[in-house]
Write a structure and sequence with these properties.
32% helix, 20% strand, alpha/beta, three-stranded mixed β-sheet, single chain, five-stranded mixed β-sheet
Length: 184
């Protein structure tokens, strides 16, 4: 009897791990990018060149590494990005020095540093995030020529809450499956 329960439990874990490896759960093929690569988030780095090197997809993570208090990273609207005036248009403030930003939507994102003079000095970049790739091996989608954005995002933060709720739901589902296997 105990042997059967152990085998069922092992089978359940194997099925869940196989589903994760095959990409059934959203974000399974995500990448993590340190903004600025080895230069990290600091003055004197060409972030336009950095951002053009990669194809970003939903589920990818941007990591902003910097000395807290000397820099920050704000996600902003396009007009704020262009003007470097953070009195309006700030969507999210990151100020820890080791900020991880999950790209939850296929859209344009704009980031700036609001420390005096840094944005105008080049500490800003924009990226266009595409839907996650369904190609085998998680290959990035083909790059499309970029064109200037003509609209400003008008979405609220509900999508981030939905993403967190989805992650909690997937975790709860996994727990329920394992418990059913073990108990029945």
């Amino acid at each position: 009897m105990a042997e059967t329960q152990v085998l069922r439990c092992f089978s359940g874990f194997t099925i869940i791990l196989a589903m994760i490896n095959l990409g059934f759960f959203r974000g399974a093929n995500s990448e993590t990018y340190t903004v600025g690569d080895e230069d990290e988030w600091s003055t004197g780095t060409n972030y336009l060149a950095w951002s053009n090197r990669y194809n970003f997809s939903v589920g990818d993570v941007l990591v902003f590494k910097y000395i807290r208090g000397q820099h920050n990273a704000y996600e902003v609207m396009e007009a704020t990005y262009k003007s470097c005036n953070d009195s309006t248009g700030v969507l999210v403030r990151y100020e820890s020095g080791d900020d991880q930003v999950v790209l939850t939507e296929a859209k344009k994102y704009w980031f700036i540093c609001t420390i005096n003079g840094h944005c105008l000095g080049g500490m800003r970049f924009t990226i266009e995030v595409k839907e996650a790739s369904t190609a085998p091996g998680g290959a990035p989608p083909e790059a499309e020529p970029s064109s200037p954005a003509t609209t400003t995002p008008d979405k609220d933060f509900a999508s981030r809450e939905q993403a967190m709720a989805t992650h909690r739901l997937v975790f709860a589902f996994g727990v329920v499956v394992v418990l059913q296997i073990v108990l029945f």
